[in-house]
């Protein structure tokens, strides 16, 4: 009960009954998961630096094709790292707690309108990008098919291409479902 002069804040979690408060507080169980992803990010920074050092140290002897494959590997690590950041920051902001970054000059543009739907689409696009890099590396190495230095078989290349196509179809499906779930702006405005 609030007396005169006191305003009840509907957003005050202390106003919840014990079971809903416990359920709502359980979102903090995700915190160790996001912290673990930060550790994974550190591992990817290490792998990036290790591969970059390898490229620099072998510059005199590396062929153009080998350099391209190493650079594609670096791009792959960066894209996976970007995916990790999207999941860490976007997931924490969406599912755990607000980060209150509105006034921070380095706030990513996409974070101002992130929700579970936007995050799913961004993740799907990032996975397609990562898959594209892997497929490109495979196609570059496909020139050695049939030789003893070949690391791929025709079947492996085919399955990589099929899986990449499935990633694209999945992303399209997610976008279509999201579009169908969102009321269109003119229809939504006409209903009000």
Describe the structure.
With 192 residues, the chain is mainly α. The chain is 67% helix and 0% strand. The chain has helices spanning 18-25, 31-57, 64-96, 116-141, 154-181, 185-191.
Quaternary state, please?
single chain
Residue-averaged pLDDT: 81
Secondary-structure content class: mainly alpha
Report strand %.
under 5%
Give Rg in angstroms: 23 Å
C-alpha termini separation: 35 Å
Write the H/E string, N to C.
HHHHHH
**Tally of extended strands?**
0
Largest sheet descriptor: none
Number of helices: 6
Q: Per the principal axes of the C-alpha atoms, what is the gross shape? A: elongated
Query: Helical residue percent?
Result: 55-70%
**Residue ranges: pLDDT <50 for 5 or more in a row?**
1-9, 187-192
Offer a concise description of the structure.
By secondary structure, this protein is an all-alpha fold. It has helices at 18-25, 31-57, 64-96, 116-141, 154-181, 185-191.
Topology summary:
Layout: H1 18-25, H2 31-57, H3 64-96, H4 116-141, H5 154-181, H6 185-191
Helix pairs in contact: 2-3, 3-4, 4-5
